Fold each of these.
Amino acid sequence: MADKMPFGEGASINRPPLFFGVNYQFWKVRMKIFMHSTDKGIWETIENGPFMPQVKRDEVLIDKPKREVHY
């Protein structure tokens, strides 16, 4: 019975759910839950793109040069 399930790896909190090419909608929900539980910022980055620090120069926002970015 277990070998007929598309997600035979089980529910792990350390590894993301594997996608085997079937039942994408189910996998997508599980992957989103996994990422939220790991760090909510991960999902926000996937939806919105990476955070780009900006600086205001001459009343215009521009991306901060990489040499000035300190994470």
Amino acid sequence: MISPAHQIVVVVDDDSQVRDAVEGLLKSADFSPVAFSSAESALESELLARSKCLITDVRLPGMQGLDLQRRVNAAYPKLPVIIITGHLDDQIRQSALSDGATAVLYKPLNPDVLLQAIHVAIANSKEVM
């Protein structure tokens, strides 16, 4: 079994406080988080190909989180995606889940719920790999 420290988790959120908090949480759980402020910068990175999970906000400058999810699904179909949002919107939630998101979590994020969602997403992605 690969230890979490060798598991890259990509975080995309334009809010630096959210990015920093999620990065800190992931580091404390021995993951290797890499954070981006935009979908475009995450897509330009080589890290998505090596990551174990993508966490993205819905509302981003430029490309939106659901569009990022669709692009990632096409390029890396086995990469689990967790959507985070500060807006309770059933249509967004349904769209994200229909497009294969493993979870849709609402801000403020509960650290235990987020870590559990990541562990479940990674475990389920190994089953199909």
